[in-house]
Amino acid sequence: MAPDKRSFEAAAESKREGISCGVTVASLASIPNLLLYAALAVYCLVAISHWNEGYIDFGDGNYLYISWRMANGAVLYRDVLAPQPPMHFVTGWILAKTAQLLNLPTLPTFRAFSVVLHALTAFLVARLTRLAASGLLSSYQATCAATLGGIFYLLLPIGFWWSSGFQSEPLEIVFLYAALLMLVHGNSTKTAVVGGILAALATLTNMTAAPYAVFFMIYLAVRERHKFAPFVSMFFAVWGSITALLEWKTGAYLENVIFNQVGAFPRKEFLPPGDSLFTYAWHKITSEGRD
What we know:
This protein is mainly alpha-helical. The chain contains 12 helices and no strands. The longest helix has 45 residues, at 5-49. It starts with a helix and ends with a helix.
């Protein structure tokens, strides 16, 4: 028996409803990503609108100066004093040298790098948030949580303004978050190796990354032992070889970064009156941002 006209019309209507439903679901699923991109656009517009010829604070101006000196032939730690490990200054040297070679204005080149770095970190935050939420929430809810995490990182004032300058911490955070992503997202020796390299680069950007690298090692030793050896071996291979090379080439790396910077904190003459290293650290932890 041949199908009648009404059967064809019913089938066509059902198909249209299915397509409409699919488009609606797809549209809803894209909303969180669109919100994150919109927040990124707002961040870029506001950040760029505040660019000027001045430096933001002493650290920003000092690091810009050191990068400029390196681009003009100065040897880091030997010819110019620097309190941080090398990755921050190597990045600055690349930016300053690129601006020179392409005849670009130097300061906007650094500021554009800071904007890109902050945006990249926001996407890493979103990715890590999604991974953390995926076991607790539905796929769409995890995507929404990831979007909120990225937007908070983009627009919270303390990170928004601090990351505008050429500071070492934003680059350090990118390396740390990327290392964490390698450790929690991948399940192979290769991801552990990459994580170890990234954690070493973070520590070679700012020594405050060292405790986080230790936390990574403790976590792997307890929960994912098959990743522990490749992570630790690669971390110390990269960090140790670069540290040894810089000390051999400059003769002043350890003095600049370890003894005069990191090693200065336990020295009594640098602590407030009546404070020990422990009480000073405890006060910083419990009251930072509230004084």
